[in-house]
Write a structure and sequence with these properties.
583 residues; Transcription Regulator spoIIAA; 6-stranded mixed β-sheet; two-stranded antiparallel sheet; 8 strands; 61% helix; STAS_dom_sf; membrane; transmembrane
Amino acid sequence: MGQANEILGRLSPIRPWFRDRTAASLKADALAGLTNATIVLPQGVAFAIIAGLPPEYGLFTAIVVTVVAALWGSSRVMVSGPTTAISAVLFASLSGLALPGSETYIALALALTFLVGILQLAAGLAGLGGLITFISHSVIVGFTAAAAVLIAVSQLGPALGLAGGTGGVLHRLGGIGAQIGGVNGNAVAVAVVTLASLIVSARISRRLPGYIIALVAGSLAAVALGGEATGVATFAPLDAVLPAFGVPDLQPATVGALLPAAVAVACVGLLEAISIGKSFAIRRGEPYDSNQEMVGQGLSNLTGSFFQCYAGSGSFTRSGLNAESGATSPLSAIFAAGFLAVLLVLLAPFVRFVPMPAMAAIILYVAWKLINLTEIRHIVATSRSETLILGATFLTGILSELDFAILVGVVASLSVFLNKSAHPLVAVGAPTEMNGRRVFMNARTFDLPQCPQIRFVRIEGPLFFASVEHVEREFRRMEQEDGFKTCILNLKGVGKIDLAGADFILSEARRARTRGNDLHLIVANPGVLKVLDRLHCLDVLGAQNVHPHKSGAIRAAVARASDPICAGCDIRCFTECSAKPGA
């Protein structure tokens, strides 16, 4: 009953933020929504082009998906809709199945969006939000960089007045190279004017409608240069201004062909949305529920597939602008969708005057901004394993397909996680003075003297079937280096222990006792204690060998230490050594 109520609560359209709306907050949300609508108008067109769809599909996605995700999502300021990453994955996944822009291609995109919504909604209702954290952030960084390169290469042709070509990065570059003699100077000039206008607008203020300013500047440049008469292509008029209802084509053969791509798009969308939502929630000190966000994203894509929308997710650009513009609740995103619908009705007749090179320049700018060079440098400088994940994802996206790059990145990410889990930290500690107090630090790293009879070992990580071999190997290495000793094993950093881990502890206890030594455990975690008790470790060790704090373990181990050896020892490693002979 409790789980059913939780599911119903996640699906309820009555959201917690409904109760705290005021006239001031409504005004703030409306102003933020208006600012957002001016940004997404050209963005929606650009993203649809990246996805291989007619321009209006990006705008429909920025209306329907945005409203549903705002109502059922968890973030107060995140704005969902079309994104560059998902647009690139969708294009890479579908362009091999149908001609981009064709009726078949559009039908496949809508069916794919339906499947994405079902997968995301099911994951959210099943409470799988925590699994997203197992996928490294480096996967998204590498994938996004690969998507940016593909997007940029796909727009080089239109920016130069050439055919855009098809296929992956290398194939497209080869196609552009073969046409290089046919570059249209006017198209290049329009692209340069547009790009320069966009950069200048961004430098002046992020709140300026830079994309619209750039498109106007590019359009005026095209008119001044002679427009279509000089070979500068322009957009066709929009086929529709507002979305219409339609049922996606979900034939079994279509579903089977699209399912792998749907999994990739669903994964990318959830990673984007949850990472954006979490970052803003932490920054603003607001609660955040990953499972509720998954439900919101799933419902938005599921609903959008019936209203000529393709798969969407959280947009970092629009969310950042939303927060900066003073948004206080998801109503700002709903206002943005409403204002966009009005702007679309008013401005739709002017779309046919927008030059293709101008839009290509805007998409090139978007692609450049998509590459997070600061984060890439940080990953490369700080972690070899994360660099491996980043490199594998990026290179796969460049040399193969984007949806396959996500799979490679996820597999690499999970492999690194499993490898780390199988190799927990096993370190020998020793006490030393620091800032006037005695603390335990790594004996090898800091070259600290150790007790000749007692070894203090700490394990940080799970002690289970996959890690026991590594831990045992470390114990044997310690024995070879400084002989057999009574061992104090600190398990405070062990969050998980299974039968194999318990067997290892019993084996070490018996091994020590056959040599006249002993094994003491420091255990504070009730869960670990319960497992050790259930697996009869405590019966073999005895209650006197299990301690909640290191002071008790040290006291017991020192008391059993050989007095003759202590009498000739001048290390006096522990404070308890003061009670032994020779002190």
